[in-house]
Amino acid sequence: MTETSAFRTDRYELTMVDAAIQSGTANRECMFEAFARRLPAGRRYGIVAGTGRLLDLIRDFRFGDAELDWLRDNNVVRPPTLDWLADYSFSGNIWGYREGDAYFPGSPLIQVDGTFAECVVLETLILSVLNYDSAVASAAARMVSVSLGRPLAEMGSRRTGEHSAVAAARAAYIAGFASTSNLEAGRSWGIPTMGTAAHSFTLLHDTEEDAFRAQVDAFGASTTLLVDTYNIERGIELAVSVAGTGLGSIRIDSGDLPTVAAAARAQLDSLGAVNTQITVTSDLDEYSIAALSASPVDAFGVGTSLVTGSGAPAAGMVYKLVAHKNAADEWVSVAKTAASKASVGGRKSALRLLDASGTAREEIVMVATDGPAPAPAAHEPSVSGATERSLLVPLMEAGVLDERYLGAAGTRLAREQNAAAMRELPIDAFRLGRGDTVIPTVYR
Amino acid sequence: MTETSAFRTDRYELTMVDAAIQSGTANRECMFEAFARRLPAGRRYGIVAGTGRLLDLIRDFRFGDAELDWLRDNNVVRPPTLDWLADYSFSGNIWGYREGDAYFPGSPLIQVDGTFAECVVLETLILSVLNYDSAVASAAARMVSVSLGRPLAEMGSRRTGEHSAVAAARAAYIAGFASTSNLEAGRSWGIPTMGTAAHSFTLLHDTEEDAFRAQVDAFGASTTLLVDTYNIERGIELAVSVAGTGLGSIRIDSGDLPTVAAAARAQLDSLGAVNTQITVTSDLDEYSIAALSASPVDAFGVGTSLVTGSGAPAAGMVYKLVAHKNAADEWVSVAKTAASKASVGGRKSALRLLDASGTAREEIVMVATDGPAPAPAAHEPSVSGATERSLLVPLMEAGVLDERYLGAAGTRLAREQNAAAMRELPIDAFRLGRGDTVIPTVYR
After folding, report:
1. End of a domain among B256, B278, B309?
2. Where is the Nicotinate/nicotinamide phosphoribosyltransferase domain positioned along the sequence (chains A, B) (predicted)?
C-alpha cells in the first residue's frame, strides 16, 4: 500500500481547511507554535529530537490522486478543498530549536508561519514526530548522563512499532548513544550498528561449545559471546576456552547484574582474559545503569525503557495557533483561555541565559505582538559575563528547507548540538530523582 | 528513501544466519514461538493485535539490491550469506492466536516453523508489530469495557510515531473503538474516521461566533462544535444560538469533566437542545472514563493513554527457539535456563477451557516433544458441559498466507473475534484495579 506523510493526519485538519475555504479565512496569515506545557512528571529537562526527520516528511507532504480519490469518495471535504489539496506544498517558514538542544516548559520549539490552511494541516505530523522522538531522546540523555562515559547501544527495536524503532535509534544516537541494533537506522541515518547473536543461536547447536565455536569461526575471537543461556560461570569458562584470552567481549542478559558482573570480571581475570569486556543488556534503564556505576561493566545495551521514553512515552508537545492576521489585516495574538490548558499567545523568540561559567540559568521567552518572524536575539556578554544564546534557527524559508539538517549529516549535527547543550546544563539536571525543571522559563 | 520490512531488523539476526551458514546449522528445522512471560503489572488479560499487519510485512520481507549493497559495504555478512538473503522469502508455516483474541502468560501467540535461518530473521519484525499493537489493543479493551456502550474515538495519532499512529488506530478498532481521527487508518484498514475542528479554528476567526457560523455553514447543524476555547458556558450558549437546537454535538476538551459535563447537559437542555450530544476528549484513560459512568457523556475521544498502552507501552512478548532438529535429525526441545528468564521449551498447542456457561476458566498449554506442527486440539463438550476452544489457527502454510486476515476484511474479522473473546472472560477481568491474571495458565 502506498503511503504519504500527508495522510498521517487527523481528519479534522482537512475539515478545518474545508470550512475555512468556505468562510474566506483559509488564507489568513498565521503563526503556529509547538511547545510543551510541562515536562513529564519529575523530569528536569527535555531534549528536542525529530526535526531532521520532520523536515523530510514536510517536503513530501503531498496529496496524490489516491488520497484525493479517497477523500472524495468518503465525503471528507468538498471539491474546492480537493483542488486546494491537490496543489498543496508547504510554502511558508519554519523556525525551530536546533535538533538535540535542551528544552523546557513553554520553549517555542517549532514556529510555523504561512496561511492558516497550509499550517494547520501539518499539526498531526509535526506532533507525532516531535512527541515520540523527543520522548526517546529525553530518556536517552538521562541514561547517557549516568553511564560514566561507557558506551550505550540502542537495542529496543522489538519493543516499539517497526517504524518507530528506526526513529528511536536515531533519537538515542542524537542523545549520545554509541550504536544501534537496527539495520534501517544504520542505512538511513548513518548510525553505527552492532549485534552478534541471541540465545537462539546457542540453543540451535547441540552444545553451547558448538555454538561458541561456530561464532568464533565466523567472526574471530574479537566477537561478543552471549554466556547466560544455561549457566553463566560455565558459559564464561567455555567462552574463554573456545575463543582464548583474546575474546573480545561477553554479554550477560539476565540475573542481578551488580553481582553477576563482579563475578564475571573476577572469573575472566582468573582465566587470563583480562581485556575481555563485559556487556550487560537485561532490562536496563537510567536507574539500573546508575546502580552499576561501580561495577566492572564496559558497555550497556538498552531496549524497552529507552524506546518507551522510560515512563514518559510521549513528550506532551502541542501545536497551537498563537497569532494571525484579522479581517483588518492586523496581527492579533491569540490563545485558548479555558481551564487547565491556557497558553501564551503571540509569536515568540527564545534565548538561553548562560552565566559567566557557561551554565544555563534561565530559558527566556520573549513574546511579540506583531509580525510573523522571530526577531534575531541579542548575544552580547553583559557586565557580569553572562551571555544569551539564541535558540531559534530557520529550518524552512518560503517552503525551502535547510538541507544541512537532513539525513546522516543532520543527525550528526544534532548529536553535536546535544553534546554542547548537555554541557551547559546545571549539575542538578543530572539528578535522577524527581524534581523541578532545572532552569525556570521566564517570559519577557 | 526506500524502505523494506527486511531492514526493520536487528543486525544480530543476520550475523546469526551468517555464522550458521558457515557452521552448517542454518538449515536445521526449527520452531520459534512468540509469547509473553507475564502481563504488564496488574493487568488481568491481554489482547493480541498486529497479526494482520504482520502477515503483510512478512510477505514483503525481501532483501533488494540496495539492502544487499549496504550489507556488503558495511561488512555485516559474507558473500554466501548475501546470496542466501538475495533469495530470501519465508517458506515455512506460521500458526497463531486469532487476532483480537485474549491471551495470558505463556500463551503461544505465534509459532513459526521452518529452517533456523528463515525463522530467526523475522524476530524483530514479529515482536515490533505484536508488542506495540497488542499494547494498544490491551489498553483499548479496558477502556471499551468501562464505557458502558458509549462510543470511543481514537485520537492519539499525535502522541506516537507517525506510522505507529496508524497501527494504534487499527488496534483500538479491533478492541472495540468506534472510529479514529487518522486518515491513513481509514484508508488502509477501513476504519471509520471522524473529526471536525480544533481550537485553532475558533482562534482564527475574529469571534467565536464567526467560527461557529463558518463551521455550521460548512457542515450543517449536525456538526460537533468545540465549546471550550474561551468559556464553556458562553460557548454552549453561542453554539446553540448559531446552530439551533438541532446542533449535533458539543465537544469539551478541558476542565473537571464530571462537573463540566453535568453543567453542559443542564444548559443544553435548558436551551432546548435536548438531543445535542456531549463528547469529551481531555486526557482520558480507562480510569477517567470509568469515573464518568454516571455523567451525561455520549462519546469519548481518547489519545495519549491509548496509543501509549495506558502505562504499558510494550506488551513484553519475546520470540524464542523452542525446538529444533539436531545433528541426528531428531526433534529436541530447548529453552534458556538462566535466572529470571527461563522459558518452557517444546512446541505447544493451546486450548481455552470454557465452563458450561461459556466462561473462560483456564488457558491450557500442551507441550509436545516431537514434530513442528501444533496438534489439532479436542473440542468436545465434557460431562460437566465444559468445552475446550482451540486457540491456534494456521496463518501461513509453506510461505502462503491466509488472505482472510489481511486488510480491512481481516481487521473486521479481528474486531469480531475480540468481541467474542471478551464475552468469554470472567467478570473479574473487567475490574480496573491491579490484580492477577483472570485465568491461570496450565501446562499439560
Report:
1. B309
2. 152-343
